[in-house]
Design a protein that fits this description.
Oligomer: single chain
Structural class: mainly alpha
Radius of gyration: 20 Å
Order of helices and strands: HHHHHHHEEHHH
Number of helices: 10
Distance between the termini: 28 Å
Mean pLDDT: 89
Strand content: under 5%
Number of domains: 2
Length: about 290
Amino acid sequence: MNSYKQNNSFQYLKLAGQHLEEFFLKSSTLQKELEEARVQAFKIQAFSRVLRKAFKKESPERLLIDELKTLSKSIEDQIGNYLYYFEMHVFAQKEADEKNISSSKKQLENSKDILLKKRNALLEKSHRTTSIISSILSDFDLKKYYLKGLLKELKSLEEKMKLIDPKLLEDGTHELRRLIRWVIMYFVYPENLFIYDENNINHDKYTQLSNSKTSSNDLVEIHYKSIKTLSQWVGELGSMKDAGLYENFIKPKKDHNVSQPEIIKLTKTILKDSKKLKPFKKLRKALRA
């Protein structure tokens, strides 16, 4: 059965793949264009992380979706590597530290050269990504499988959250932020699929849902306060993350996991609040309703 017309909520994937193809054809290293391209890779990666959970391991469907996940992560990582050095250079300029400005500029230029050298390979990955997306859109009833996979993925991330060590930086605080950020992406990227259980909401860029073209009867109602809470945590952790990254950049440590007291304190607070507020559990409950 061709279910392409049933997958309107996931047409953004096709646009995301096309965006990446067009981006790598241009060989651009402009910050805003790189950031937008990275967002498109995140959209595809988030989708594949969820959908893969709906199928058995080693099944043809799972293997295909895992390939999509690997491709999009590879693209996102390469862009992210360049943007990391860009951000470190900006931090150095704000601090007006000539030594770090010079050092960060050199590393930024090296990262730029690497990105440009890999352009053709990244373009090929983008072509393959778009091809897989077209196949998935035409062969699957995605709403059913996405919601099935989402329930499993939320449970998996909830369990991973319990293992976070707040004393670690990269594998602790940063991993916590990535984990929470994924959950938000899972809900805000699909179009006309979800609706909040509250009205008259002041949205930020992390909580805005796209559901203006669909009757509310066709949308899956989800818990707004849980998404809002997760969004706040991402923002708080992000501010700390940027400062911590720069501190480690200018004063390299043998152990990249070494954190700082204020970051450890915030991480502990969020982990404690998560146990109390149970946002993952409330979102799973809404999906089952």
